[in-house]
Every structure is written in structure tokens, then in C-alpha cells.
Amino acid sequence: MTVDLRQQVTVLEAACHCLLLRPDDVPVREALARTIAASELSAASDDRAFVRSLVDEAQAHADSLAFRLEGTGYDCLCISAAAAMLCQTLALLKLQLSVVGQVDGAPTRHEFGLRP
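Now predict its structure.
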């Protein structure tokens, strides 16, 4: 089953926001670690280069955050900083995906009744 990239970004972003609000909460940390493990951020081959690079950056931040969540000795500040970087990248990616969706889904001249 393939999950839409926009849905994955939204779920990861929500989990990151929960962690930023409660960085000491162990169940929130565990939930985010599970969410990262379950996510498969990948851009389609026909996506624009900027989208592909944002997906790669988001995956790198997610991997880094997962490492910190699973490791020992990382304080809340370090984990919050990694979560904030992931949130920022996901927000940029979500914005870019909405812009690409608007451009790709824009009505053509023919749909407006205009000649090409």
C-alpha cells in the first residue's frame, strides 16, 4: 500500500509538533520514533528537483532524530532541536507540494473555453 507523500508529511509534522510541545514525554517520543520508522518519504521520479531535495533533507533529519530518540544520553534540548529542523523542512516540503499541486492541477486554457 502506497501512502501519499502529502499524507506522510502531514503525519510526521503533527508528530513533531507534539514532541516540541512535550519534549520530556516518553510516550510522545516513542510515538514519534514509530512514526518515523513507518514513514517512507520518497519523491516520485517526475517530481521537481527542489521537491526531491526537500524529501532527501527531510529523510536525513528524520533519521537523525530517530537516532537521537533511540539513543541514550540525549537531552531534551538536543532532541527538540532535531525535531525543529525536521518540522521546518516538512513545512517547506508541504508548502512546495501545495504549490506544485496548484500548478499541475491548474485548469488549462481549453477548460476555460479559450483557444490554445
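The radius of gyration is 17 Å.
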